Amino acid sequence: MERGLLLDVGRKFWSIDEIKQLIELLSKTGLTHLQLHLSENEAFRLNLEAVSTDRMSSVNDRTYSYDDIQEILKFAHRYKIQVIPDIDAPGHLRALLRNRPEFALPATEGCALDVTNPLACEWFLSIIRECCEWFSECNIFHVGGDEFIDFRRMEAYPYLLSKSHEYYGEKASGLEFYVDFVNHIAQYLSLKGKKVRVWNDGFLRKDLESLSVLTKDVEVCYWTNWDVNMALVGDWLRAGYRLVNFCDNDLYYVLGENAGYNYPSVEKLIKFADRNKFSGEQILTNEEMKSVSGTYFSVWADKAEAKSVSEILIDLAELLPIFVKKYGEV
């Protein structure tokens, strides 16, 4: 079973040497995977040709080159750590859409891709194509899918709703273009031999039933159920999806303790963390856990300057051994 760590470099840049230090720590403590969250509203960290030629040299001042990524991948391979590229879409894209405002979905403050626009979707697919070349040896690819819109307020997006009714019929909920976009990206990556992952919050909702259904070819990274209309873990299992546990209650290390999160501690992990527990105190049976591919600890950079990389590494050196012990094989 996978034991991994997500690192948000989209909002807090880590140098190659700093990422190498992290990889050494992961290997030393027995983790297996490093998920690099490379895109956020604040920055897009890959200096892709599809981006660098897109009206400016770069969308932010600190990026990784192709050679940088190959150096990281080679180093990770040496330490037996598998890298998962994480390119979040169709939300969290303000950094990229800043130079392509015509591809932004109305009423989203330039943060979300207009999934109703075939040109916008093809433009983003060109980015995914190039990412596949950069990460050709990586077997898993995370495509996000979270927080595309405020799913509780579909009426706040009349353009999306109107387009959905026009294309899918009056019974459309407004999620159809979104689901089809994710399915299209997932299909492309699957044909490239990648295992594809998405976040849980926008799909299989209780308040909005999409006429389009999320493909079973993805694994669902279950991070939260803060909204009562989000599907429970059991709903996903009954629908036949495989899951990955990103329990935000215990395993989210959020810089600045933003959004109501508190830093994990050794004491909290020992007392509260449990291999079978998902967000919202949802406990799976050992039989249900057979549909879970692994568990991940996450370092999110909501307030990037709240801690230095050195401070984060010191904290992780204390926390990750407990994480591995609590989430190891039965």
From TrEMBL:
Residues 3-308 form the Glycoside hydrolase family 20 catalytic domain. The keyword Transferase does not apply. Gene3D superfamilies: Glycosidases (3.20.20.80). One of its GO terms (biological process) is carbohydrate metabolic process. Keywords: Hydrolase. The active site is at E147 (proton donor). GO terms for molecular function: beta-N-acetylhexosaminidase activity. Belongs to the glycosyl hydrolase 20 family. This is Lacto-N-biosidase. The lineage of its organism: Bacteria, Bacillati, Bacillota, Bacilli, Lactobacillales.
